[in-house]
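Example record

The entry below shows one chain as it appears in the dataset: sequence first, then structure tokens.
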Amino acid sequence: MNGLKNRGALFVLLLAFALIVAACSSSDSDDTTTTAAGDTTETTVAGDTTETTVAGETTTTAAGETTTTAGSMAGEGIKVGMAYDIGGRGDQSFNDSAAAGLDRAITDYGIEAQELEPTAGGENREENLRLLAESGFELIFAIGFAFGDGVAATAPDFPDATFGIIDSVVEEPNVASLVFAENEGSALVGAAAALKSQTGTIGFIGGVNIGLINKFEAGYRFGAEQINPDIEILVQYLTEPPDFSGFADPAKGKEAGIAMYDQGADVVYHAAGGSGGGLFEAAKETSETGDVKVWAIGVDSDQYMTAGDDVKEYILTSMLKRVDVAVYRTITDYVTSGQQSGVLVFDLSADGVGYSTSGGFVDDIKDQLEELRVKIVSGDLVVPETVG
């Protein structure tokens, strides 16, 4: 009888031991990741600790204890304001490039952002800057040279804020001035125009006849003349200051483009903001009704990627002015270092300007364009900033 009891006790002990071994084996299993409906749940089981991550939140369970740590991003709590110039987000050019840099920073850093657009005539530029500053925005971008006076007047009143202005230099201790070598980028598309032209005549359309846009023309001329010293270049500015509507008038852009194509130009470059959409329409119309295909060259953004499908095949290339890079870099510096100031130049050597290859229309001349780019970066060629 005692032997039977001993054997029963031994059986119970063996069964308990087997259950413990099975449990330990289960606890040593590999990591498991499950994805469902856009959310990722990652569960790691190791020994006595279970760690689960869902949508940026980590929960750790160990020995009956649960601790939850919410995921955070470097820019959370930082407020960034953006005051666009005429045309605003959606101009498929200058403002959209700035918007792209802001969007990237929102994704990467989790910043809070607000965007304002001016009236059609831009009379309330300074008002928008002050509205953002008074609302507690710490980093405020002014997208365009026309904000120069407004930034100079507003920045001293809000010394704890940083203002980032595009295309102008404002010498205040809390202003970061972001400027570009538009002449260098324009030299590359000028060379492309000369290499692709079959008539020996090309064109340039400027939005407004001001010093900044003259830099585009000067570079375009220089680059074209490196390829063909005898090339003819037609030039038209859509408006004269103080009328800045030339940056947002596609009808005028189309009219100017058609006139140039009628005069024999087969490649036309615009530095006219939203008015450039009219040039693309002119290239399409002229090509479809004429005997030869003509080309348009975009500006600021890669306009092959933003223009309508019906005009893409007429956009030879675009001069890339990387406002997106300038905006993103300034936000990055602010997130990591705080208040910014001084002048930062974005040129060819810094990839601040360049040319697009979308569509493949310049693939056959890319070697020649790269050769010119290297000469400019090295200083062997100095691109002028003014015409004449």
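Notes for this example: Residues 76 and 110 are 5 Å apart (CA to CA). The first strand starts at residue 32 and ends at 36.
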